[in-house]
Design goal:
Elements: E1 5-10, H1 14-25, E2 30-33, H2 41-45, H3 48-65, H4 72-94, H5 99-104, E3 108-110, E4 114-118, E5 121-124, E6 127-136, E7 140-142, E8 170-174, H6 178-189, E9 193-197, H7 209-219, E10 224-226, E11 229-236, E12 241-247, E13 250-256, E14 258-261, E15 265-267, H8 274-277, E16 281-282, E17 285-286, E18 299-301, H9 312-328, E19 340-343, E20 348-353, H10 356-363, E21 368-373, H11 378-382, E22 389-394, E23 400-407, H12 410-413, H13 415-422, H14 442-456, H15 460-472
Helix pairs in contact: 1-9, 3-4, 3-6
């Protein structure tokens, strides 16, 4: 059969753009279908870029507030300025994902919604196209839990909060995950009275327990965090919203000017007509195998829509694998063991691999845990920034199975551990790298030295060394 395209990509976010650009570069006839007015996906418009621009603006306000007192009017002005900076940052980055760039690559761009008619046919706003292979990259959207009354109030999500121009006096945030905590801290630093409701017994439930505990303790200095708290119902008030909740079996209520719902994401799959293509889903996400193929082997799915890891860098990685498999006929497989993520709170959190609890369950007595508190590192002592720690988890021979840290700039200086792991090197090899003093990543080298202390001091090897020194040196 002669198809209109060799490959059609549904979705113009990180994963979809990676596939489309790669396919066109390989010479494949390529179609890119995006239903929203601009390319770039959630990361550019609602996620990574605006949130990081907001976090940086809020950080500058917080730092300045240590040295001068801001009035309510000052915070109004600073809040408005921060939101303007967010819009400017998004606009600047948008130029890198402009439509013309992809059209100039020879890609046919369709600005509409795509619906499967059959496994090889897509309906795009009444027009039909066919493709030999198809990649689904439709991303995700905010999950709104069925809390009674939530549909009767005006609530914010990560997709709408950046449109605020007037500073709210107060805000209730439902959800203490990455999105909820990042935005909560930023709002608090911009003069908003923030209360977080989290159903689990700690915020950031996917993080290592010790790391999450440190982060919660630190964040609690700037905002109110209620754990084991479940939102029961929501009512609209003249001033905003009233949230009724239960904490530890006791009913209570909160009133605020704004409500932010940050209870996770759901895959954008419900309007694709996947049944017409014979593509199966699991818990709403497109089911894929390790090669990112769906139940139809010529159809792939990358990014948030496949339910793997909801991060832009993961979508990009999956996009590279999918395009090499779909266009070049390879059988590359996606692996998530060596993918880190960062929570951009203050202090930052770095996460790679298994948590200590997960690693203990998997490796038992063969697990080694190495920890260094930042209060024991010269650079962090000099900066008066000693809140935090480094935790590295290895096998008895030094293979890295988990790496975690909470501390100022952890997302940058901890990546050294991720690089060593990606190169299949042992953790103790970091001890052989000369780190400039007193760079922050000295704390990583300091932690790797603990491996040798564990292996040598008090061991039979150390006894032999001492005997040799006393006898012959």
């Amino acid at each position: 059969m002669d198809y209109d395209y060799q490959i059609a990509v549904i979705g113009g976010g990180s994963g979809g753009l990676t596939v489309a650009a790669g396919a066109a570069s390989f010479g494949a006839r390529t179609a890119l279908i995006e239903r929203k007015p601009q390319l770039g996906g959630d990361c550019l418009h609602y996620g990574c870029m605006p949130s990081k621009a907001l976090i940086q603006a809020a950080k500058e306000v917080h730092t300045t507030s240590q040295y001068q007192t801001f009035s309510s009017e000052d915070y109004d002005r600073l809040f408005s300025g921060a939101m303007d900076r967010v819009a400017e940052a998004v606009e600047d980055v948008q130029n890198h994902d402009s439509k013309d760039r992809f059209i100039d690559m020879g890609i046919d761009l369709y600005e509409a919604e795509a619906v499967f008619q059959d496994p090889h046919t897509l309906n795009i706003d009444g027009k039909t196209i066919t493709a030999k292979r198809i990649v689904i990259a439709t991303g995700s959207s905010p999950f709104i839990p069925p809390i009674p009354g939530v549909d009767d109030v005006e609530y914010l999500t990560n997709e709408t909060i950046f449109s605020l121009r007037k500073r709210p006096a107060s805000m209730v945030v439902i959800g203490g995950g990455i999105i909820g905590i990042e935005l909560s801290q930023a709002m608090s630093r911009l003069g908003v009275d923030v209360t977080v409701l989290e159903g689990n017994d700690t915020i950031l439930a996917n993080e290592d327990e010790e790391i999450a505990g440190t982060a919660q303790q630190t964040a609690s200095r700037e905002l109110s965090i209620l754990t084991n708290a479940k939102a029961d119902r929501i009512e609209k008030t003249q001033a905003g919203v009233k949230v009724f909740y239960t904490k530890d079996g006791v009913e209570n209520k909160l009133e605020a000017e704004q409500l932010l719902v940050a209870t996770g994401r759901k895959a954008n799959t419900d309007r694709l007509g996947l049944d017409n293509a014979g593509v199966q889903t699991e818990k709403g996400a497109v089911a894929v195998n390790a090669s990112l193929k769906t139940t139809q082997p010529h159809i792939y799915a990358v990014g948030d829509c496949n339910g793997s890891m909801p991060f832009t860098h993961v979508a990009g990685m999956e996009g590279k694998i999918a395009v090499s498999n779909a266009v070049l006929g390879l059988s590359r497989k996606a692996s998530y063991e060596k993918i880190p993520w960062v929570v951009y709170t203050a202090p930052e959190i770095y996460h790679l691999g298994l948590t200590e609890k997960e690693a203990q369950e998997k490796y038992g007595d063969k697990l080694l845990v190495f920890k260094t508190k930042l209060e024991n590192n010269d650079r962090f002592m000099a900066e008066r920034n000693t809140t935090g720690l480094v935790k590295i988890l290895t096998t008895s021979r030094g293979r890295i199975v988990g790496a975690h840290a909470v501390g100022e700039g952890a997302g940058e200086w901890m990546q050294e551990v991720g690089t060593v792991q990606a190169l299949n090197k042992k953790f103790q090899s970091i001890s052989n790298i000369i780190h400039p003093y007193p760079a922050r990543n000295n704390v990583v080298s300091q932690t790797s030295d603990l491996y040798w202390r564990e292996k040598l001091f008090g061991s039979r090897v150390n006894d032999l060394i001492q005997w040799y020194v006393k006898k012959w040196r």
